[in-house]
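Quick one:
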Amino acid sequence: MKHLHTALLLVLPSLAIAQRTFDVTIADSTYHMKQYWFVLYTTGPDTTQLDSSTSADLLKAHLAHQGEQAKRGLIQVGGPFGDKSNWRGLLLYDCETKEEVEGYLRQDPFVQRGKLAYDIHPWYGAIGTVLRYRGSTSALPSIMRS
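Output:
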């Protein structure tokens, strides 16, 4: 993995500008790479406390907004952070441009209300990489068990 990281640092500056997918060969392994967009949600400028009803409605709208994008295959990974820092959550978008991602983020009810801000960065991952579950699968829904 260290060799893959080093090779990517050498290859990415020239390839990243031209295309979203490319191959990287290291020794006898070829990695099919793709550019995604990493979004870091941070605490927004409006830090006033909302009443529980407004907060619940806003969360429902936020999750519906993201759920629709996930159904369309735009959001590949997403979720909140588990601590109380200014980092609130992350998203990994599969879109052509940063501007496209920003357009979706501007429609987020939490962003519109000023509760969340965001940073967007290009991120490269090997196509087909999956998050693996470590631990007992008994707690997972049956569709997710291998």
